[in-house]
Write a structure and sequence with these properties.
With 97 residues, the protein is α/β, with parallel strands linked by helices. It has a single domain, classed as Rossmann fold (3-Layer(aba) Sandwich), CATH 3.40.50.2300. The chain has 4 helices and 3 strands, in the order αβαβαβα. A 3-stranded parallel sheet has the order 1-2-3, sandwiched between helices. The model has no long low-confidence stretch (mean pLDDT 95).
């Protein structure tokens, strides 16, 4: 999605299994998107992973404190990214059992 507003609208049209987002986007930024997802019962359990160039402990802590499932900085190894996605989906599956 080109921006956070469109991403949020898409989530309500077709609920995804997982959301991979950035911190900085036009419209809603990643933290605001996460906040809206986590405060709505319909979307609060969707795993959210941040993939960003922002290598900041403060930004990572803010995302995790608001309920992000993971925070990954670019560049990222493809195998590592896939592994973290699998882990988030597995944890989500365990929580819904």
């Amino acid at each position: 999605m080109p921006n956070g507003d469109e991403a949020l609208a898409h989530v309500y049209r077709d609920t995804p299994d997982l959301i991979l987002t950035d911190l900085h986007m036009p419209g809603l930024d990643g933290l605001e998107l996460l906040h809206r997802l986590r405060t709505d019962l319909a979307t609060s359990r969707i795993p959210v992973l941040f993939l960003t160039v922002i290598d900041s402990t403060a930004s990572e802590a803010a995302a995790l404190d608001q309920g992000a499932d993971d925070y990954i900085t670019k560049p990222v190894d493809r195998a590592l990214l896939i592994s973290r996605i699998r882990r988030a989906l597995f944890r989500h599956q365990l929580q819904t059992m």
